[in-house]
Amino acid sequence: MNPQEKSNPSEGFQVEDPLAVFTAFSQEEIRRWRSTEPEFDEELHQEAVSLVLGRLKQRLDTAKR
Amino acid sequence: MIIQALQAENLFKFKKLSLTGLPTAGRILLSGPNESGKTAVVEAICLGLFGRTASLEASQLAKAVKWGEEQAAVTVTFSGSDDQSYTVCRYVDAKGHGQASLSQTGADEPMVKGVEAVDQAVLALAGFDFQQYMETLFLAQNPREGSAREETIQTLAGVADLDGLANALTAEMATSEAEIAQGDAQVEQLQAQLADLNLQEEALGTLERERDAAVEQLAAVDREIDRWQLFAAEMQGAADGIESHTGRLLQCGLESGLEAWQSRVKSVGQALVGMDAVCQRHHVEMDAVPGAALRKATEDLGKRLSRATAFMEEVASHRYGLAVWLGEIPSKEGTDTLHRTQSQRHEQLLYCAKRRQRTGLMVTIALLLGLLLGAAGGLLQFQPESNLASMIVPLLKMVYPAWDAALLPVLFGVAVVFLLLATNGAGRNFGLRKKMVEHEQALAALKAREAVVRQMIQNMDAAAKESLPRQVEKLVQLEEGEWVAGLAEWAKEEGLFLLDAKAQQKFMAQLQGHLETFRQEMAADAAEIAAQQAASQQARQQLGVTIEQLEAAIEQEKARRAQDAAWRAECAALAAERLRQSHQIAVRRIACTLLRGACKGLSIRFNQELRRFIAKAAPLFTQGRYQHLRIDEQLQVAAFSTAKNDFVDFDEISTGVRYQLLLAVRMALAQALAARVGRAQQFIVLDEPFVFFDRQRIRESLDALLRVSDQISQVWVIAQEYEAALAEDLHLSCLTEEDSLVYQG
């Protein structure tokens, strides 16, 4: 295969937003725990998610400044 | 970030370095022999951007100044991640002191001044720091496999923020757990202190009740003391009165009048009554009231004086009656007085005289008529014919026309009646005469009585002006009065002390003895009162001490309660804090679990993406010989050898191929960094990457450099020489003997 004929390897290089990744992951985890854990404390978990999102946003804002 | 211009003075080997109008895309080839300054150019870029170089830390920048010069300067113009153009200027003197400024290109005033501020601003504009630059965008001459630290990989993967936050939360959990342990220890200590304090719920109430009872007792004792003081004062006042009045009584003598005796006795009596009242007010038994003997003597004296007074009143009443009888004092109608008695007697005497005169006349007339009628009857009886008789008959017929001789007995009867009347009248006249004598005698007696009464009054008045003994002596000599005998008897017995000096001296001695007895009783009572006061004062003092002790105990108990409440509040606060910390730990534990999970997923996908990129870039640098690569999470590369029909380790690959693969890895990392920073174009520096490449590989690798990534558009490549340089490349040749490099595009 001629390398020059290859498509640009940078196409589709996925750089994920950590905030979005965490949000999606945490919601999926909570959904799973909610459906499997008999004594699941959703309020506690949502508080943890809010804490992380708040602190992450703060860290990212600080890094941008 | 794209390098638009690079200018320097007295930096490294260059007296002057000026590269302006640099192409924003394409290859910038730096060639030249050793020591010609190729690496110094890219070091100048690094120094301008980050304030240090790969070989010189910030503290070693004095070495960057050209030998023999005082100061070096470097200016880098670049486009940031926001596509704006910025110029960073740095100055370094021979002592290593640095200065820096950052401004938007073309602006007169810098937007940031100072080394640290400029470092931070460049970091924000570039999106990466020195280490990340060195591990992704700068390929050194002797790269190691992977060559990127875990921190850099995490940053590129986007895990750094999540992992950093997870680490921070883990640290916070550790802090919270330490604080919980510390709080538990404090609670345990407080519980021990509370146990030692051993607060009793009823203790304060009991102490306060005891204190209140003691205060009430104190008030009662105070009232008792006041009562004793008042009692003592009143007793003393009454005693002084008794002393004073008894003293005045003792001053009485034979010359003292009855009124003086009575007045002083009365005063003593009143003083004693006052003493009785004082004792009664203070609930003293009457038997215990001092002055009993004095009181008895005074009462006896009072009775004696009362008898004397009664006698004197009788005397006065007697005198009054005599005066009234004499008419010296007006009296009521009907009262028997001398004048009225005399008047009555005189009237009765006059009446008797008048009646006696009238009765005498009537007796005379009756006697004459009886005698005439008897003579006429006798004449008519015995000498009816006589002239005188004939003269009498007509008279009788004149008086009684029906006169007849047969009525002669009647005539005699009438004559007898007249004679009887005359006799009766004579008798009455005699009776009147007798009454008249009686009246005359009574008048004479009244006169005599008047003289006697006047003498008595005179004697009484004279006696009243005398001293009591003389007065009594004179009064008992009076002949008239029912009281005289009684007074005489009183004067011999009860009243003797008033009249007789010896008897009076004896009586006074007795009275003085009673007074002395009273003084002794008062002294005893005063001593008893003083003892009671002393006892009350002692009780008061003891109660005061007791109250002070109770107050102190109450304050101490209150302090203990306050301490107890404070410690319990502290325990409650610590419990609440423990609850809060536990909650924080629970929240953070969940957060960490979620963060670690997200990091793991993020890392996995980043590595997959990186491996995918490397797998696609590697054939470009190996002319398609190594299309299949296996790259683990530590970026360890294993290549599939078609010759061996298996994956071979990195060490088994030829050096040239290994450097080709490392170039692919580095380009992948650079792309990852560029993608993480943003969509802006990015430069990369490759310091002699083709040392082990043959000309064919160099040509193909140079060709591949611009095809690997759309974002990595400006590629700085250092090499000894470029035979394969293309016309579109910017080729800067460095010469060993030249200390300047100038390019203006």
Structure notes:
The complex is a heterodimer of chains A (65) and B (745). With 65 residues, chain A is mainly alpha-helical. Chain A has a domain at 41-65. Chain A is 65% helix and 0% strand. In chain A, helix 1 (18-36) packs antiparallel against helix 2. The longest helix of chain A has 23 residues, at 42-64. Chain B has 745 residues and is of the alpha/beta class. Among the domains of chain B are: 2-148 and 635-744, P-loop containing nucleotide triphosphate hydrolases (Rossmann fold, 3-Layer(aba) Sandwich); 338-465. Helix content of chain B is 65%, strand content 12%. Chain B contains 17 helices and 15 strands. In chain B, a hairpin with a 5-residue loop joins strand 9 and strand 10. In chain B, helix 3 packs across helix 16. The longest helix of chain B is centred in the last third of the chain and has 121 residues, at 501-621. Chain B is rod-shaped and about 250 Å long. The relative contact order of chain B is 0.14. The mean pLDDT of chain B is 88. Chains A and B meet through helix 1 and helix 2 of A and helix 5, helix 15, helix 16 and helix 17 of B.
End-to-end C-alpha gap of chain A:
46 Å
Tally of strands of chain B: 15
Mean pLDDT of chain B: 88
Write down the oligomeric state: heterodimer
CATH second-level architecture of the domain at 2-148 and 635-744 in chain B: 3-Layer(aba) Sandwich
Query: Which secondary-structure class do the elements of chain A indicate?
Result: mainly alpha
Percent helix among the residues of chain A?
55-70%
The tally of helices of chain A reads: 2
What class would the helix/strand composition of chain B place it in? alpha/beta
| CATH evolutionary superfamily of the domain at 2-148 and 635-744 in chain B | P-loop containing nucleotide triphosphate hydrolases
**How would you state the average pLDDT of chain A, rounded?**
79
Shape of chain A: flat
Rg from Cα of chain B: 82 Å
Assign an overall shape of chain B. rod-shaped
Report the count of strand segments of chain A.
Answer: 0
Instruction: Identify the biggest protein-protein contact and residues per side.
Output: A-B, 35 and 45 residues
Spans of chain B of 5+ residues with little confidence (pLDDT < 50)? none
How many helical stretches of chain B?
A: 17
Read across the widest sheet of chain B, the strand sequence of neighbours is: 7-6-5-4-1-2-15
Give helix and strand order of chain A, one letter per element, not per position: HH
CATH topology of the domain at 2-148 and 635-744 in chain B: Rossmann fold
